[in-house]
Amino acid sequence: MKLNIAYPATGAQKLIEIEDEHKVRFFYDRRMGNEVAMDSLGDEWKGYTCRIAGGNDKQGFPMKQGVLTTGRVRLLMAKGVSCYRPRRTGERKRKSVHGCIVDSSLSVLSLVITKKGEGELPGITDKVVPRRLGPKRASHIRKLFNLTKDDDVRQFVVRRPLKEKEGKKLRTKAPKIQRLITPRRLQRKRFRVSLKKKRAEKSKGEAAEYAKLLTQRVKEEKERKESAKRRRSSASRSSDTGKTTPQPSVTEKAPKKTGKVPAKVSGKVRRFIFYGSVCYVF
Fold it and tell me: Which residues, in sequence order, are CB contacts of 99 under 8 Å at separation 6+?
């Protein structure tokens, strides 16, 4: 089995091959992310602790975190899933991956040193590999060089030398600083804030105008209803006064409701009063 060992403190990594299977048996049945003591590999590894970062089996299929098996499985993968890179938008594909548990079917195992031991490992801890690229964000550059807000970040950018050509001056390349506060950026921010204020004032004025118009419309509707009501009442009063009711004449007297039966005989009103079997006529 091959061990790909990396040391983040120096940026170095080395691939070593171990022929004896018994020396790597302590890795078996361990999962990705577990930390393992490396004392079993030899005296030079005494005190070292490594974290299992991944690996590949003998056919080249990678280990996938979360697949709790020692064999190989086929999973339907989509965008955002490890061990798969979609070539089209919305594409899904069934891919073969190895489980996250270490077994004898692996050919390469990736390890990261988390704790350094007593001695130095040749090619890993005894050399420093410089970083090819420096920090790009303005806050990260300030943190690296311990700068204040008054310092100019542009003077502390890590420049990368390009390949030198014969007869030409050495050229360097620097990254574009991200999140850098410049006068133009402040001007654009002030412009955005002013636009926001103008929109707020415009919406406030439109709301006030709409409320004013709404009250006016409500008042007009109320007045219209009241005028219609007055027209109806005046029309009903005029119709009542136009009608004439018959009045009783002076010569004729209106009959009284006394239970007596009036009768008209030759233009004179006579009354009949019954008392028992006797009828009196007036």
Answer: 63, 64, 67, 68, 69, 70, 71, 72, 73
Q: CB under 8 Å to 9, separation ≥6 — which residues? A: 113, 116, 125
Beta bridge partners of 173: 160
φ and ψ of 4, to 5 deg: -100, 105
Q: What is the DSSP string of 116-181?
A: --SSPPTTTTS-----SS---BHHHHHHHHT--TTS-GGGGPPPEEPPP-TTS---EE-PPPBS--
Helices (H), the chain: 138-145, 183-242
Q: Return mean pLDDT, the chain.
A: 88
* pTM, full prediction: 0.58
Query: Quick one: how many helices (H) and strands (E) in the chain?
Result: 2, 12
Nearest-angstrom CA–CA distance, 8 and 112: 8
pLDDT of residue 265: 46
Measure the CA–CA gap between 92 and 38, rounded to whole angstroms. Answer: 40
For residue 108, give the 3-state DSSP assignment.
strand
In the structure encoding, which two tokens stand for residue 112, read together? 């990261």
Pull the structure tokens for residue 178: 């991200």
Contact in structure between 56 and 98 (CB atoms under 8 Å): yes
Contacts for 136 with CB less than 8 Å, ≥ 6 apart: 175, 176, 177, 178
Please, are residues 33 and 65 in contact by the beta-carbon 8 Å criterion? yes
Question: Which pLDDT does position 244 carry in this prediction?
Answer: 52
Which has more pLDDT, 260 or 95?
95
